[in-house]
Design brief:
By secondary structure, the protein is mainly beta. A hairpin with a 6-residue loop joins strand 1 and strand 2. The protein starts with a helix and ends with a strand.
Length: 290
């Protein structure tokens, strides 16, 4: 009886302690540059968005970094991006620009004082544009998942066997991107299907419970396959993990997401340096009418 009483006391103490309020006092930090940039094989005005970090409890819009000199080189030619007048911090390539698979693209940012200390900084990020297989065909298969009507988007293509590949997958419905946030993207490495011909393999899903995904006869769907680097795949995985939160029992502590952006001058510790990612990847698409 004494043993049972002791256990009940311990359980009661544990439950009471779980309701203790903790007042977190988070100190402010110097602003850091955040880079969000992508170059693909599409012919279009590609964008690089520059912002500053803000304090955790800030209730103001994240400011864009204006007035920077932003250049992009593929090892052969160098272009200067133009800041969009209607949106501070958004820099664009010419509308005729496109990337070429196999080349390494280097982004250089200069002429900005992000931390406001009176000294301008220089930043750099590089990404190699990976190849991506041609999609032979796509199809839809009606199915049920988690009690809801779904459509499985299937695709067929030959996965190259002479190299290690990593893929980013997105889907469209009547010309509109459905997987329009990073948490809805599909990413995978080819370690379990390297060199295999993937025939009618399920790549993405459309859900009848979402208005923009509900498929009807005559609708057009499209599958997008991108060849990305292993580092960019890891970046996406880390963003999704931090967004969804860690398992309190088995997950690790929250941590800074990796970045390929470096501050060249003045030199700083990586933990106090810029954040974000600059990616370059090739894109292939295939569509069908349902």
């Amino acid at each position: 009886m004494k043993k049972i009483y002791t256990i009940l006391l311990l359980v009661g103490w544990a439950m009471a302690s779980c309701t203790t309020d903790i007042d977190l006092k988070l100190d402010g930090t110097s602003p850091m540059l955040v880079v969000d940039g992508v170059i693909t094989t599409d012919t279009m005005a590609h964008s690089v968005y520059l912002q500053r970090t803000t304090d955790y409890f800030s209730n103001t819009a994240v400011p864009g970094v204006s007035g920077a000199t932003v250049t992009l080189t593929d090892g052969l030619t160098t272009i200067t991006l133009t800041e969009r007048a209607q949106k501070k911090g958004l820099y664009l390539t010419p509308a005729t620009y496109y990337g070429i698979a196999g080349r390494t693209y280097t982004l250089h940012i200069s002429g900005v004082d992000v931390d406001g200390d009176g000294v301008t900084e220089n930043y750099e990020a590089a990404s190699q544009m990976q190849n991506v297989p041609t999609i032979d065909n796509v199809s839809l298969a009606e199915t049920e998942l988690f009690g809801s009507k779904m459509w499985a988007l299937k695709a067929s293509f030959q996965e190259p066997g002479n190299e290690q590949n990593n893929y980013l997958m997105r889907n469209y419905h009547n010309g509109k991107l459905v997987s329009d946030t990073i948490t809805e993207w599909g990413v995978t490495a080819d370690e379990f299907f390297n060199g295999v011909y993937l025939k009618n393999e399920t790549m993405m899903y459309y859900s009848s419970t979402k208005k923009d995904e509900n498929i009807a006869k005559g609708d057009t769907v499209m599958f997008e396959l991108c060849g990305i680097t292993k580092e960019y795949l890891n970046f996406i995985d880390q963003v999704v993990t931090e967004y969804r939160g860690h398992n309190p029992m088995f997950g690790g502590q929250p941590a800074n997401i990796l970045t390929n952006v470096k501050q060249l001058s003045p030199a700083v510790e990586s933990s106090k340096g810029p954040r974000g990612y600059f990616a370059a990847y090739a894109v292939k698409r295939k569509s069908m009418v349902y």
